[in-house]
TrEMBL record:
Protein name according to UniProt: glucan endo-1,3-beta-D-glucosidase
EC nos: 3.2.1.39
Keyword field: Glycosidase, Hydrolase, Signal
Gene3D superfamilies membership: Glycosidases
Keyword Hydrolase part of the UniProt annotation: yes
Alphabetized Pfam families for the sequence: Glyco_hydro_17
PANTHER family xref list: GLUCAN ENDO-1,3-BETA-GLUCOSIDASE BG1-RELATED-RELATED
Signal peptide: 1-23
Amino acid sequence: MSFHHFFIFSLTFSLYFLSPVAGTTSFTAIGITYSPATTATHSRPPSPERISALAISLGMNSVRLDQPNPATIRAFLYSNTTLLLNIPNSLVPSMAANRSNAFQWLYTMVVPFFPRVRISTISVGNDILENSPENSSFLLPAMENVHLALRDLGIRKIDVSTTFSFINVITSFFPPSAAQFREPALGNVISPLLQFLSDTNSSFLINIYPYNVYRMRSEIPIGYALFQEHAFGFRDDLTTGVRYRNLFDVMVDAVICAMAVSGHENIPLVVTETGWPSSSGDAGELDANPIYAELYMKGLVRHLRSGFGTPLRKEGVAETYIYEMFDKEEKLGTPKQNRTWGILYPNMTKKYNIDFSGSIRTVRHFWVSLIVASIGLSLL
């Protein structure tokens, strides 16, 4: 057994015994990503107040604003909804160069509203290694300047991080114990960033799309990607002895193992984007359909609400954001969208019959009751 495999094998047991004991609850907040609706995407863009009301009516605990603006942030005043704000990739170099630029952004997006708006996290850029690789060297200095600017303002309850994409930073997804961060991103960007997250008690943010991995690997059964459990629907990680029954857990634990190999196994994990497309402009993407999309969403919510986490992290991910709130309109004369990910139609009506709210205690109580009942019957 290699040192890498021995390390991950040992980690499996340490993570298990450090996990919450039986009877405790492990709640994963479920949120939604909102991309601004404009006249280019909607004939009648919804007001910020309607966006806030929609998030609450859907039972979402959190909203991720990938292009925040003051009007939308203001719409969440005095609500119980937490916000994750994204700083555009284009602003990263200027924030890295001068902390005053970080102050300027914070004075516009945070200071007028916090804490009356529950802002939990600021992501400095989104998938910058893929979308703006020329700015990757500015990422950590920008994060440090935003963090220090928040401290100078007396704000200590907002995490500062950045968002990565699974397929761009993880070497392989199975077995999870073999996963590592890709080079040169690991040495140049991710290693010092992990140290920053550890020092500031912040979370690692990552976009996880089982749909994309499923399309890349034809041997993956569709049910495995859609949380459809059955007797033989599993894959075992022979190094750790862990059994995986869905692709989402495989991908999450691959990230956890990659962080562990880098010396940071205890950093909280937030899934900033996940979902399944209900349609695609590519006629070959037959699996992008509303039936599979609804199965994925229902399976995801059921799994997150179960309270059982993942095999390597019993508390699971801290938050998961579904991508995205609603589809764009398909206007006459415009090319058909490649993929549609919204859980609402462009007119803001529901696409699926899914309850995104619910009590984690109720779900866990159901399973505990079922186990106790089964033990009782076996003793009769």
